[in-house]
Design a protein that fits this description.
- This protein is α/β, with parallel strands linked by helices.
- It is 43% helix and 13% strand.
- The chain contains eleven helices and twelve strands.
- It has helices at 9-14, 31-41, 55-60, 62-82, 118-136, 164-173, 192-208, 231-241, 267-273, 281-296, 301-310; strands at 2-3, 24-25, 45-48, 88-92, 106-107, 144-150, 152-154, 178-180, 189-191, 217-221, 248-250, 263-264.
- A four-stranded parallel β-sheet has the order 3-4-6-10, with helices on both faces.
């Protein structure tokens, strides 16, 4: 593991159950240090998740968002070119990399890239850079490389600011009303275990196959259900799952115009990787709510159960 030595450091240590492994702290913008650590470990497979992943934060600090997401990805790609042991590279971008006109369109991998906000623009830019490197430097079947575009990932242990599920949990802890800024926004909600399952299947395919070009490219990972679920539906089910009544207040404060609808077409992942969603929307919310409820009540049984559940994938 390689991560920034910042306010999230204690969370990484608290929820890291891997007994064998090495963790290094460093900034992905420090290419020299990143290359040094990668040369030390000599990895076979790299899964790139380092990013500034909060939309609101991208408005408050667009320079940080674009540098971390774009230059950070570029630094990693350059390092991967120099490390002979690397055979498989997964780079996470976002479902927000597409040009979005707020229609009920399911985005497929061939759709036009775009980004009206700094976060989305940074992810669309990453996709252009990744595609350039695939065609310019990773076409000789020595290294497999793919970008992955997941929907709105939820699950336990997320405490990020201005995210709906962590906000629900904090409203319980602080015994306060829940404020929602976009109750009618529709998102492709999915459990983190489903998404990680897809990433690992793809990483394995890229690693094992001799014809890397067969799997190189970009992949959507979104829910299979053809139903729309908005923020308000998610929040109500979250509190209902753990028998908590909470007053929900629609906030009038807005920091910027967010897209109301994001939907993903994942037929490519279903066909080429044989990946599919295993946890439906209702169970996704229930599992997530139970995790936070047990965490708040210092009961690790549910946390342990969900770790065991991950082995079923």
């Amino acid at each position: 593991g390689y991560s920034k030595n910042d306010e999230f450091k204690k969370n990484f240590r608290k929820f890291c159950f891997i007994k064998k492994g090495s963790n290094y702290f460093g900034d992905i913008l420090d290419k020299k240090n990143l290359l040094k650590k990668l040369n030390l470990v000599k990895p076979d497979i790299i899964i790139h998740l380092a990013a500034q992943s909060l939309v609101k934060r991208s408005f408050l600090n667009p320079d940080e968002t674009i540098r971390v997401n774009l230059i950070g990805t570029l630094n990693l790609l350059e390092c991967c070119r120099k490390i002979k042991t690397v055979k498989s590279i997964i780079l996470a971008t976002s479902d927000k990399c597409y040009e979005n006109k707020n229609s009920k369109k399911y985005f497929s991998e061939e759709d036009k890239l775009g980004g009206d906000d700094p976060y989305s623009a940074s992810k669309a830019s990453c996709e252009i850079i990744i595609n350039s490197y695939i065609k310019s430097f990773f076409f000789d079947n020595k290294k497999g490389i793919a970008s992955v575009r997941a929907g709105n990932v939820i699950g336990g242990a997320d405490w990020s600011k201005n995210r709906v599920i962590p906000d629900c949990a904090r409203s319980i802890i602080n015994k306060k009303d829940l404020y929602l800024r976009s109750p009618n926004s529709i998102r492709p909600w999915q459990h983190v275990l489903d998404v990680l399952n897809g990433y690992l299947i793809l990483a394995k395919k890229l690693y094992e196959t001799k014809n890397k070009n067969k799997y190189n490219g970009n992949y959507n990972f979104g829910p299979s259900e053809k139903k729309y679920f908005n923020v308000k539906k998610l929040v109500k089910l979250f509190f209902k799952s753990i028998n908590i009544k909470k007053k929900i207040i629609i906030s009038k404060k807005t920091f910027a115009k967010e897209k109301n609808i994001i939907l993903l077409n994942s037929k490519k992942s279903l066909k080429k990787l044989k990946w599919k969603q295993k946890i439906n929307f209702e169970d996704t919310i229930k599992l997530t709510a139970m995790w936070y409820d047990n965490f708040i009540n210092n009961d690790k049984n549910e946390i342990d159960k969900q770790i065991i559940l991950s082995k079923l994938f």
